[in-house]
Amino acid sequence: AQGAAQSAAILALKGVMGSNAAPEVHKAHDVAHRGYQWVPTQVREHSFTAEFAPDGTYFNGTFVNTLTSQIDVEDALWHDIPITMPRYGQAAFRARQPLRCCLVKEDFVFCRGLAVGVVTEDNQLEDGGTPMCCLPDGMRPRQPLRFAAWARDIMHEGSSAQLVMLDAKPDGWIRCLGKVGVKCAIDLSAVRFSLSPGLALIDSVRFHALNVGNTRMVMLQGVLDPRALSSGPALLAPLKSGLRPWRSSPFIAAGSRWGRFHLMFVRPTKGRRSGGDLVWGDSKWQGTDDVSLSGICYDVDPEELRFPLEVESWTPNKKTLVVSDFHTILHAKYGSLTCAWHKAFNLERLDQIDFGAFSAGCKAAGYAGDAVRLWAMLDPGHCGRIGFDEFSVDPETFEVSHLLADTTSVDAREVARRQHR
Distance between CA 415 and CA 421 in Å, rounded? Predict the structure, then answer.
């Protein structure tokens, strides 16, 4: 019964996030699904020019309704999120709608509810943000995550939707970064994340896939390396086979500081090809910024379920060839793996590096292969970090039988094939 309820949760989410239909206009504390009108900032117009707005008018921008989500899960699967905060004194927020969270398939965490409060200079912590509520044990992120969230000024009737930032910390606390002195109603459903390590996508961003029945949901988590984007659209990363979105959907991503927001798109590749694209479309900030992609969540085209996502589908021989070629390139450029580790990959002299540092090192070394695939081979446990031992792993540890490459004898090839089995 629990599995059926969890399957219903995924199916209910599909068609709500990124839906083409515009929700009706309601008061901030009544509406269950909320949209945001993104007006072009750095680009002249968007691909969704003249998108239909909830109030019945047209505007030259993009209607984004993926900031909120509706999850249809039985009440028994939802857990209350405490809003009392003895650590920080008097609570700055209160629940207008019950604040709750659920765990789907022991991996994906979804939140819901509406919190009302105001950010002031007095209730902000020294390291940033105003505490809102605390996630229960077992539903806390592995690392700090930042989300863009929907909000509305409840003190002024008819005010338009606003954007705020929500930080989810490993200790469970969710903090709000918003405009000082404005009392807002904030939708907590923007907080959605995975508890699993995930697989590398680009820089420090990882993707997390959840298969339920005949559906697959993908979440992105992590932060892009600092980059300057001033004209869109710009391709950030291709989505591999098995991750093709079932339609193009806009998302809003949070930047490194308050007031910096970015418009992102996940879209399927044109034609019948598998995979998709992660595209930057616009920004409310000009200059270099660290963009958090946490909270981007979409449904995969059902035809993509035939493509496996795990590295285990690669043969030991292929792993050996890929890692051996990688080591050969490093030896040719730096003389040794130790020198390459310090000069190109581990510039900060840490015990371990993440995929962002690894990807930058591959570019510096002139490696033209698939860095994502190579990383998955060096990090088979998907822990998200590797040390020098994993970096310099002996390809022979992949347990590959040496084929008789210097003979064309059919019998020799058959013996090698049997040995490999």
Answer: 10
Task: In whole angstroms, give the CA distance from residue 133 to residue 112.
Answer: 12
Number of neighbouring beta carbons within 10 Å of residue 189:
25
Task: Check if the beta carbon of residue 382 is closer than 8 Å to that of residue 198.
Answer: yes
**Spatial CA neighbour of 198 closest among 381, 408, 2:** 381
What's the DSSP call for residue 303? G
Per-residue pLDDT at 338:
94
| Placement of tokens 């044109």 in the chain | 270
Residue 89's pLDDT band, with cuts at 50, 70 and 90, is: low
For the stretch 353-411, pLDDT in tens is: 888 788 889 989 999 887 877 888 888 777 778 899 999 998 877 654 333 333 333 34
In SS3 terms, 356-369 reads as HHHHHHHHHHCCCC
Q: Measured between alpha carbons, how far is residue 192 from residues 266, 369, 418 in Å? A: 17, 33, 48
Cα angle 112, 129, 161 (rounded to 5 degrees) comes to 55
Query: Peptide bond preceding 233: is omega within 30 degrees of 0, i.e. cis?
Result: yes
CB 289 within 8 A of CB 262: yes
Residue 17 pLDDT: 47
pLDDT band at 311 (very low <50, low <70, confident <90, very high): low
Tens of pLDDT along 233-263? 888 888 888 888 988 999 999 999 888 999 9
Say which amino acid occupies 269: T
- For the CA atoms of 178, 182, 187, 193, the dihedral, rounded to the nearest 10 degrees, stands at 10
- The phi and psi torsions of 407 (rounded to 5 degrees) equal -135, 150
Both tokens of residue 112?
């819901």
